[in-house]
Hints:
about 250 residues; mainly alpha; 12 helices
Amino acid sequence: MLFKLVYCEQIKLKRTGIFLMSILIPLAINFLITIDLHFRYTGYLLVYQREMNLSCWQLILKEQRILYFPALLPLFATLILTQIFSAERKNNGWSLILTQPIKKYQLLLSKYIVSCEFITLMIVVNIATMVFSGFITGVKDPLDADLFFRCFWILWASTLATAAVQMIAVEFFSSKWISIFIGLLLGLMSQGTYLNGWFGKFNPYSFSDFSYRADWKQALFMMLISCIFIIIGLIISTFVFKRQNINR
């Protein structure tokens, strides 16, 4: 039944712009980053490379911070979730769906799985376009595949974790703007906090911002914490979903 629900969600979303949104967001951001690097890479960034103790490829990844892409990942995840939930919130769609022999947790899990697919697409496009941006900029170092592989896992796991947490807000608040605001606020507040005590150390909203500096030990820790948040987020959102009034 879960696989059927996932398939139905995918079919339902074909007519929406969520697929294009997942691709165009990282493309647009990295296009602007490429323009920025054209003017700043050799004249500014490389000058301070040793001072910042970063490799050339880490410099490329770090530049995304000027457009707050790591901070906005929870917001983008929330936009994907609100789009996925929007169909049932129109014309009292929940009442119609739940007349079928479908368990609520399966319905909620199917929506989360589909949101994970689009989040994964967005992360993959982001990493690929960042590599392309580096080559265009003129990075002389060999491609640091280990760095990008590590960054992918951190970005992917942490964004899925924040999506699970944001799903609680999407379920709890009838207005999508409240959950979008929560995602934006938590993402912005958490940036640059990973090394600043427990708030950043155990906060998946802070992991993406530190991904370009993390080693594998830190990456594994982040992925473990993210998995815990995914489980907690899904449990709480299921609890909220089971007890809310579907006719609101």
